[in-house]
Design goal:
Length: 750
Amino acid sequence: MTGGSAFGLTVRAHRRRLGLSQEDLAELVGVSTSTIGKLEAGRISQPRPTTVRLLADAFGLTDEARDTFCQATDGTPPVARVVAQLPPDVHPFTGRAEELAELDALLAHPSERPTVAVISALSGMAGIGKTSLAVHWARRAADQFPDGQLYVNLRGFDPSGRIVEPADAIRGFLDTLGVAPDQIPPSPDAQAARYRSLLAGRRVLILLDNARDAEQVRALLPASPTALVLVTSRNQLTGLLATDGAHPLHLGVLSPAEARDLLNERLGNDRVAAEPGAVPEIVAACAGLPLALAIAAARAQQSGFPLAALVADLNEAGNRLNVLDAGDPLSDVRAIFSWSYATLTPPAARLFRLLGRQPGADLSIRAAAALAGVPVAEARRLLSQLTRANLATEHLPGRYTQHDLLRAYAAELASPAEAEEALTRLIAHYVHTACTANRLVYPNLDAIAVPLEPLPAGVEVDRIADHDAAMTWLATEHGNLLAAATHAAGAGLHAYTWQLAWGLDTFHYRQWHLHDQMATWQAAVTAARHLGSPSVLAYTHRRLGETYRRLGRSAEGSAQAREALLLFDGIGDRCGVADVHLDLSMLAEKQGDFAEALEHAERALAATRSGEAPVTDPVELRMARALNTVGWFRALLGDHTAALVFCREALDINTRRGDEENIAFTLDSLGYAHQHLRDHQQAVDCYERAIDSFRRLGFASMTADALERLGDTHHEAGQPVPARNAWTESLNIRIKLDDDSAGKVREKLS
């Protein structure tokens, strides 16, 4: 293949990913439709560098992806991001030769595959080894899927009932495939379409583990015959067989020979040979269930007792183990876990019980230490005991989880009192760390008082060094923090409920997790009513109102804001009053009433300049926001000279305070005023500085808005090329956000 052909295929793939025709792309780039056609057909071997850069802009490529694309004209095909999410293989893996051969047959005749994704649905009872088989085969077949392997545990049978929603799984896959959070479309349907387009034509293996039903799986199926989906479930997933062409594979118990091989591998040939009569009895008692055999071997390994002692324990529990033959998996697992649990040391047994009650999907070593109320080093040692006994899994370095039924069994063993104390410690750990992270993400939030209770004994806060580490921690723990907030609300831990909402707020705001932001603030409002603190209640109403506004629910946003205004006014909190008026100004702007918006902004400014109290740091920060907002609405109403005065004063305060977020917003306002005063160079400088900050902070929508205004300024100054570049980048962002205003930018480009 020539360099031009490789580049042409890349251009075509990106164009189709965005749903553009050749005419659309030609219009965006500013070349003829025939040029695009020749590029894609490989008839232009060395496209102009300018054209290549414009194509990269049109496709929204940045950083490494952009460099790879721009270098692709030298004959080297661009390399797509390859992901390898498969969990570690079970070692040693024994048996299942017949099932492995059946799975291999799926790949033996590619030409005979159907035109939709091939699905292999593994079903069987709990503990039968579905995930082990799926992961082992997937790793064996990984080299036939050079574009990557995706994995998600759908938690279809989580004892808490908190299954992974398909939309959440798709968002996780988009993150893994390199889609920046601010580029993920807001609607679930658009996210699913983006997911399918990213996998189009790619040789990818997707392992969907522990599915509840066909409906949970169906949205995760890529519309590409080059991908293969492997699904495990406790159900038979008949719907996938009937409507989606799935290939069924029912998993039964191990044969006696396979069960003996498993014990030989786990215990060692010498030990098994020393007590040959014990092995058949262990195999018979475990009824060929791989999980039962593995736990029996772990018990023998840990205790070091003769295998005959293990046989005696199995026979003593004969009545319960007979249930195994009756096909009641819950009773089976409980019986098996009971004697495995009995081999644990008392501290390890206690941690095992508490793990069953923790609300999240997994937890870190430090979180486990908080749960148990022990030092981190002790928690690490206890977790190692549990993993060796197959009673916990280190699914990622330093992060631990349990199989669904293990959690259900462990939860039954924990007394309500010890569970309540443990969960209070765990949630305290999450609250304190989340609030620390929030202040690192947005340092000026230190001005907002969030009084935290002292940490309970035996609880430590995660060590977070800086802004980037804080964002990483919040992203890693996001699901656990939401689960903790839900538990706190249900358990009546009212202070922790609203404080978790606060700790997550900036992360939710910048990463566009609007529905999660709404849910946490709704719970926070309810919690605040119980606390009896007017200031906390006012604050939670205000933040919930702001979330409603961003979701386009203006009436609810206005109602929440006005409730907050009454409360803040009642306690004489002028910072709170100013904040609410600024929120109301943005609501009025969204409704197109700039005069009312300016009125609220001026009321906010008056509240900060009332002279009733000294100008403290919090007051000065509100004053800067109010000054910029007044300037912005003055500009929108045509008074651009006055706008400069207000915004420059705001910029001075924000610069002195080092508030990058509000510096960016103020620079954007200044750019708008300079643009309409026809001071184009000053406008360009302000817009470009604002755009740099918006990008750094993850404000996708504001980046798109500022880019559009930058393009307008270049266009007015008679500079068509930079105008087109700015508009094109703005359009690409809005397409990714599924923003209705994309059409307006398209009109400017045309």
